[in-house]
UniProtKB/TrEMBL annotation:
<feature type="compositionally biased region" description="Basic and acidic residues">
    <location>
        <begin position="400"/>
        <end position="423"/>
    </location>
</feature>
<dbReference type="Pfam" id="PF09660">
    <property type="entry name" value="DUF2397"/>
</dbReference>
<protein>
    <recommendedName>
        <fullName>TIGR02677 family protein</fullName>
    </recommendedName>
</protein>
<dbReference type="InterPro" id="IPR013493">
    <property type="entry name" value="CHP02677"/>
</dbReference>
<feature type="region of interest" description="Disordered">
    <location>
        <begin position="385"/>
        <end position="423"/>
    </location>
</feature>
C-alpha cells in the first residue's frame, strides 16, 4: 500500500485538544469489540464512559463521535431496528463501530505503550527458541532438497516465530544496553541503588554471554547447512501461504503481492543470517552483542570502584562544597566566616599559603588589605627551596619503591592451586557419568560446591521432567531427569530421597538421574 493511500488522520485523536475524551471513547469501542459487540449507540457510549469515570453530556458524546468518524476512526450506520413510523425513519439515529483504520490505530498505540513499558533485559530463552526454529528450517530445507516436499503452513509458522524471536532479542538488547548506559554514565541513573545489585547484574551478564557463545555456534551451524536457493524457496512458500488465494479478477495484483511478500521474507532471512553469521566481511550481530555485554562488566566494576572511593572519603567537588557549607554553619562569628570565605575562594593574597596559629593571630590584630604591596607589608619567612623550586620541602623523605615480586609470586601460586582444584572437581563430576543422585555417595568439599552450583541452575520449574543447564563459566553442562510420577506439589506422590555425604554434612534432596558433561 502506498503512503498516499493511507489515511493518517486516524491518529489525530491522540494529540487533539480533547485527546483524553477521544482516547476514552476509542477504548470503549475496543472493549466492546473484545466482547463481540457489533455496534454502540451514543447513549451506550455515554453510560460506559460514566462507568469508567468520565461524565459527559449526550450532546458532547455525539459531537466527539462525529469528530472521530471524520478522522476515520469510527463508522456509522442508520439505526432502523426500532422504527415504528415515518417520522422515526427520518430521524437521525446512528450506530457506531470501529473502522479498520481506527482499529489499527488503537492496536498501534497499545503496541507503542507495551514496548515502552517492556522490561529491559537480555532474554536467553529467545536464543533457545531461535535455535529450535533454525533446526526446523534446516529440516524443511532437507525435505525440499531430497524430495521437493513442502509444507506451507509449517514454513510460514516457523518463519514468523523465528522472526518474532529475533525481533524480541534485538529490541530487548537495545533497551537493556540503553538502560545500562543511563545507569553507568548518565546523571539520571540512581548510582547508589545500582551498587546494591551490581554483583547480581555482573553474574547475569556472564551467564548470558556463556549462553550466547554456545547458542550462536549452534544456530550458525544450522543456518550454514541451508543453501541460498533453499532460503529463496522457503521465502516463496511462506509468501504464497501468507497472501492466500486470489480473488476473482485480481490475479495480477495477487502475483505482485506474493512477489513483494517474498522479498520481505528474503530480507528477514538475510537479516537472520547476519545476526549469527559473517556476511560480506561484516561481523555477525551476535558478536557485537557479546562484545557489548563483555564491555559492560569492567564498566560496572569501574563504577563500583568510583563509588567506593567516594564513600571512603576521597575528595570530590560535591563533597567539598558540602564540607564547606558545614564549616560555614559551624563558624564562631562573622569574622571567621569572612576569613573562611576569602581562603576558600582565593580572595586573599598569597600570604595565606604559609600560615600557622601565630600568623592567624597576627592577621586578626593587624589586617592586611588584599591590595597591599608586598614591599609595604610585613615580611614572610620562607625556605630557600620554596624560592628556588616553587614548592616547600616535604615533611618526610620519599618512600622507597617496595618490591612486591614475592607477593605476586604467592598470588600466582594460589591461583594455580585454585585452578587445579577446580579442574579436579570438574573431572570428578564428569567421571560420575549418567547416574542417580543417590548413587554418588560422598564428595570432597570443592566438588560438592561445584555440584551444588550446577543443581541450583538446573532446578526444574513447573511440570518438567528433564532440565539442562550450563555452568556460569560455560565449561560444564548438567542434565537432570526426574522420575515419572514424582511431583512435589502432590500429596499422594511418592518421592525417592537421595543423600550425598560431604565434609560439611549430608545433603538430602529428591532423587533423579544426573549427568555432567564438558561443553
Amino acid at each position: 500500500m502506498d503512503d498516499g493511500a493511507v489515511d493518517w488522520l486516524c491518529f489525530s485523536y491522540l494529540t487533539a485538544e480533547r485527546a483524553v475524551v477521544y482516547r476514552a471513547i476509542v477504548d470503549v469501542f475496543a472493549a466492546a469489540k473484545a466482547e463481540f459487540a457489533l455496534h454502540l449507540r451514543a447513549s451506550e457510549v455515554q453510560s460506559e464512559l460514566v462507568v469508567r469515570g468520565t461524565s459527559l453530556d449526550l450532546s458532547d458524546v455525539e459531537s466527539a463521535l462525529q469528530q472521530l468518524e471524520s478522522w476515520g476512526n469510527l463508522q456509522s450506520y442508520q439505526d432502523n431496528a426500532d422504527v415504528a413510523s415515518l417520522t422515526d425513519y427520518y430521524r437521525k439515529r446512528l450506530l457506531y463501530q470501529l473502522s479498520a483504520s481506527g482499529e489499527a490505530a488503537h492496536a498501534s498505540t497499545l503496541t507503542f505503550t507495551e514496548r515502552l513499558q517492556q522490561q529491559a533485559k537480555l532474554d536467553a530463552r529467545a536464543l533457545d527458541r531461535i535455535a529450535d526454529g533454525a533446526g526446523q528450517l534446516e529440516r524443511l530445507a532437507i525435505h525440499l532438497r531430497d524430495a521437493d516436499e513442502k509444507d506451507p503452513v509449517v514454513t510460514l509458522t516457523t518463519l514468523r516465530s523465528i522472526s518474532q524471536d529475533a525481533d524480541e532479542l534485538t529490541s530487548r538488547a537495545q533497551s537493556f544496553f540503553r538502560w545500562l548506559h543511563e545507569q553507568t554514565e548518565s546523571d539520571r541513573g540512581d548510582l547508589e541503588a545500582f551498587l546494591v545489585y551490581k554483583q547480581q547484574l555482573i553474574d547475569y551478564l556472564q551467564q548470558f554471554v556463556s549462553e550466547l557463545i554456545l547458542r550462536t555456534d549452534e544456530i550458525a551451524g544450522r543456518l550454514r547447512r541451508i543453501q541460498d536457493w533453499e532460503f529463496e524457496r522457503l521465502a516463496e512458500i511462506a509468501a504464497t501461504e501468507e497472501v492466500g488465494e486470489p480473488r476473482a479478477g485480481e490475479e495480477q495484483q495477487h502475483e505482485r503481492r506474493i512477489s513483494d511478500m517474498a522479498i520481505r521474507w528474503r530480507q528477514r532471512l538475510a537479516g537472520l543470517q547476519g545476526w549469527f553469521m559473517q556476511r560480506e566481511g561484516r561481523p555477525p550481530q551476535s558478536d557485537q552483542l557479546r562484545a557489548a555485554a563483555r564491555a559492560a562488566i569492567p564498566r560496572l566494576l569501574q563504577l563500583a570502584s568510583q563509588m567506593n572511593e567516594r564513600q571512603s572519603g576521597r575528595s570530590d567537588r560535591v563533597a567539598d562544597l558540602r564540607a564547606l557549607a558545614i564549616n560555614f554553619l559551624q563558624a564562631r562569628d562573622e569574622a571567621q566566616s569572612h576569613r573562611l570565605f576569602r581562603a576558600a575562594f582565593a580572595l586573599s593574597p598569597s600570604r595565606h599559603l604559609r600560615i600557622d596559629p601565630k600568623t592567624i593571630d597576627s592577621l586578626d590584630q593587624n589586617r592586611v588589605r588584599p591590595d597591599t604591596r608586598w614591599i609595604d607589608a610585613e615580611p614572610i619567612e620562607m625556605t630557600p627551596q620554596l624560592r628556588e623550586k616553587g614548592r616547600a620541602p616535604s615533611a618526610a623523605a620519599n618512600r622507597r619503591v617496595t618490591d612486591r615480586s614475592a607477593e605476586r609470586a604467592e598470588l600466582q601460586r594460589r591461583l594455580g592451586r585454585e585452578t587445579g582444584r577446580d579442574e579436579a572437581s570438574r573431572e570428578t563430576l564428569v567421571a560420575l557419568g549418567r547416574c542417580r543422585l543417590s548413587e554418588i555417595g560422598g564428595l570432597d568439599q570443592e566438588a560438592f560446591k561445584m555440584l551444588l552450583g550446577l543443581l541450583e541452575l538446573a532446578v526444574p520449574k513447573g511440570d518438567v521432567s528433564r532440565v539442562t543447564a550450563t555452568s556460569r563459566d560455560g565449561r560444564l553442562r548438567i542434565g537432570l531427569e526426574m522420575d515419572s510420577g514424582q511431583e512435589l506439589d502432590r500429596a499422594d506422590s511418592k518421592i525417592n530421597i537421595a543423600r550425598i555425604d560431604t565434609e560439611d554434612g549430608t545433603l538430602v534432596l529428591q532423587d533423579a538421574w544426573m549427568e555432567v558433561t564438558r561443553v
